[in-house]
Automatic annotation (TrEMBL):
Segments passing through the bilayer: none
Highest taxon of the lineage: Eukaryota
Protein name as annotated: Serine hydrolase-like protein
Keywords: Hydrolase
Annotated InterPro entries: AB_hydrolase_1 (IPR000073), AB_hydrolase_fold (IPR029058), AB_hydrolase_sf (IPR050266)
Gene3D superfamilies registered for this protein in UniProt: alpha/beta hydrolase
Annotated Pfam families: Abhydrolase_1
Any one Gene Ontology cellular component term annotated for this protein: membrane
Domain AB hydrolase-1 per the UniProt entry, residue ranges: 71-172
Phylogenetic classification of the source organism: Eukaryota, Metazoa, Ecdysozoa, Arthropoda, Chelicerata
GO terms assigned for molecular function: hydrolase activity
Protein family membership: Belongs to the AB hydrolase superfamily.
């Protein structure tokens, strides 16, 4: 007998999702057992959308898969949204019996924006991730990250190694966030002036947003990624990344995310020392034509090889959004890695030699 569970979400008066108000309803379907293979595809990717309260509004999230399955947090790339994982998830959820929570980073998709006059610190996504994990009360889970989302997931796995069992990084170069590549002092004065000019111009207000036709919005998304994003993938991101306004569409992401950061960064040596704290199983998938294909990441790979429970790197033919363009091929690497990690279980007994 196969038990399928569906979470019926009840909302608080302020529309925030509450775990304590969730009602779990179950229906039993009598079906013969079948073995799952790497080609198993979930036919219907039905997600339950909910909100996680924040002092400035909420973080929007979508729940996929079996609530009793292995928990996975999915973290998208810069200015993307939950839709980034829509093509891939059907190919990995059922195979590994996963319970995936995919989040829209603050300022993206359906999530709230930061208040006017505030700014997005470089490492703000880490706070988003921690807030979500605390809300879900997950003690042991895995992370699936793409691009910048994968970058911050590396940090999370280093800061909280006792809770992360497995981490899968899709096309990200780890030590990109270092002062060698992004010198703090060179443009800081002009960056401050840019931010103040932006605030004075009112460019961040909703009434000043540019209105696009759907075709223009798609082309704008593709152009912004130097056409690494295909038209099909752009249409997927538009579902959560745009909303109707005055006969056209506007992008839902916060324009403040385009502002330069004011955060000083650590050195590569400091970064590698921090990455030595990562203890979980790590799979890095790099795209041959991706954004970071020319970077030398041997130092990071060596550190991970020495300190992680297991480490594997894969280089695939494809562009930066390969998880959207060729999800079946990407899943063929993810599924066996997840399977092995889930069989091994939590790694809490390995991480306290920090």
């Amino acid at each position: 007998m196969r038990l399928l569970c569906r979470i019926t979400t009840q909302f608080l008066k302020n529309n925030f999702y509450s775990k304590r108000q969730s009602v779990l309803t179950c229906s039993s379907l009598f079906a013969p057992k079948r073995l799952l293979t790497t080609s198993t595809v979930l036919k219907d990717l039905n997600g339950n959308e909910f909100r996680i309260p924040t002092p400035y509004g909420h973080i929007a999230a979508v729940e996929y898969g079996d609530p009793n399955g292995h928990p996975v947090l999915a973290v998208h790339g810069w200015k993307d949204n939950v839709g980034s994982f829509e093509p891939l998830l059907p190919h990995i959820i059922e195979h590994n019996n996963l319970h995936v929570i995919a989040i829209d980073e603050t300022g993206c998709g359906h999530s709230s924006h930061m208040p006017r006059g505030s700014q997005y610190p470089m490492f703000a996504p880490l706070k988003d991730m921690r807030r979500v994990i605390n809300f879900l009360e997950w003690k042991n889970f895995s992370i699936l990250g793409h691009s910048r989302g994968a970058g911050f997931s590396f940090y999370y796995a280093a800061f909280f190694p006792e809770s992360v069992q497995c981490f899968i990084s899709i096309d990200f170069f780890g030590s990109y966030f270092t002062k060698e590549l992004c010198p703090f002092y060179k443009q800081e004065a002009s960056n401050i002036d840019k931010i103040l000019k932006f605030e004075q111009s009112g460019n961040g207000s909703s009434e000043n947003r540019r209105i696009y036709t759907e075709e223009e919005a798609i082309k704008s998304l593709m152009k912004a990624t130097d056409f690494a994003l295909t038209e099909k993938s752009a249409q997927i991101l538009m579902k959560r990344g745009t909303k109707p306004q005055n006969g056209g569409v506007v992008f839902t992401r916060d324009s403040k995310q385009n502002l330069p950061y004011l955060d000083p960064l650590h050195s590569k040596v400091e970064y590698l020392e921090l990455m030595s704290k990562v203890k979980c199983d790590v799979l890095i998938i790099m795209a041959s034509k991706g954004m970071f294909s020319t970077y030398d990441n041997k130092d990071l790979f060596n550190v991970l090889q020495q300190n992680c429970r297991s480490f594997k790197q894969v280089r695939m033919e494809g562009d930066h959004f390969l998880h959207m363009d060729i999800p079946e091929q990407v899943a063929s690497h993810i599924n066996p890695f997840f399977e092995q990690s889930i069989q091994k279980g939590a790694i809490t007994n390995l991480v306290f030699a920090l």
